[in-house]
Amino acid sequence: MKKNQRIMDFHHLKIFAAVYQYKSFTRASEQLNISQPTISEHIKNLEAEFSCRLFDRLGRRIAPTPKADRLYPEVIRLLDELEKLSEDFLYEDGLVRGNLIIGASTIPGTYILPALAARFRAAHPDTAFEIIINDTSKIADMVLNHEIFIGVVGARKDSPLLQYRPFSKDELVFVRARDYQSESLGTPLADGPVILREEGSGTRVNMLRLLALSGIEIKEERIAAILGSSASVKEAVRAGLGISCLSRLAVQDELARGEFIEIPLPRQNMRRDFYLIRYTKRTMPNHYQAFWDYLRQTSVSEAR
Questions:
Q1: Where in this chain does the record put each HTH lysR-type domain (predicted)?
Q2: How far is the C-alpha of 191 from the C-alpha of 225, rounded, in Å?
Q3: What whole-number distance in Å separates Cα of residue 110 and Cα of residue 115?
Q4: Contact 210, 172 (CB under 8 A)
């Protein structure tokens, strides 16, 4: 009976971590593939075991209590250690096994990681990948909130809790459609309508930095659109909505076909770094550590 109780306690903690991360019984239920009433019952049992309330029920919302805030990092540490202990036995036999959930900003998630994941899986066929694509800021937050172990991003977030490692180089390029015509009498970069990525995008941060270094200010009246992905920005440029800044990886085909025209920005270094990112003090399970080491050692150019 005591053995069963320990197993149940472990299950309680896993459910608690999911509810805390998503701030929702419904989302935790979807992620764990467990019914919502079961999720609620486990949380009630855990609150009974600790003799305290862990979540305040605020209508349809829930909010962690200070006790939950205190418990969460310890639960994550314990779950990580238990998962690593379980994998150690497989690792001793040379096996790398498990699902890898990797967060990435748009360009590395679309153009770099898939090929690297394929090569890693060819060497370790008992692994499987889920690549979550979001903007740089949100990927960094997911690492900070212990939702993912590894991220790949295009800009650094100032936090002592995040560890960054240079991963690969990228080149940004300002582009316009071939038949683009602006109502402005000046140069497109200085006066024409501009298409921006959303707040939190590494590409947006670098674009505005490069323009500022060239003495070009993007006033509000110049912003034609703010869009949430490189693909939507490309389509807006193609439609003649304005000019924008994109990774050369994203527009290399359009440039080669003459559909887009590159707009030079003299005397500016258009290259940027992509970074691997992880939580500084978090121990990764063996299959994540193996993939982290693989990414650090692999030449990205070999994977393309």
A1: 8-65
A2: 15
A3: 10
A4: yes
What is the separation of C-alpha 155 from the centre of its chain, rounded to a whole number of angstroms?
11
Give the pair of three-digit tokens for residue 164: 């960054």
Domain(s) labelled CATH 3.40.190.10 in the chain stretch across 90-167+273-303, 169-270
Domain 2-71 architecture: Orthogonal Bundle (1.10)
Domain covering 90-167+273-303 in this structure, CATH number: 3.40.190.10
Between the two ends of the chain, the Cα-to-Cα distance in Å is 55
pTM of the entire predicted model? 0.67
Homologous superfamily of 169-270: Periplasmic binding protein-like II (3.40.190.10)
Q: Where in the chain is the domain with CATH 1.10.10.10?
A: 2-71
Cα(172)–Cα(175) distance, integer angstroms: 10
Residue 2 CB partners (closer than 8 Å, separation 6+)? none
* Contact by Cβ (8 Å): 218, 194: yes
- Tens-digit pLDDT profile for the chain (304 aa)? 444 444 446 778 889 999 998 888 888 888 888 888 889 888 988 888 888 999 998 877 889 999 999 999 888 888 877 777 766 665 555 678 889 999 999 999 999 999 999 999 999 999 999 999 999 999 999 999 889 999 999 888 889 999 999 989 999 999 999 987 665 544 668 788 999 999 988 899 999 999 999 898 888 999 999 999 999 999 999 999 999 999 999 999 999 999 999 998 887 888 889 999 999 988 888 899 999 999 998 855 554 5
The b-or-e profile of 38-51 (16+ CB within 10 A means b, else e) is: ebbebbeebbeeee
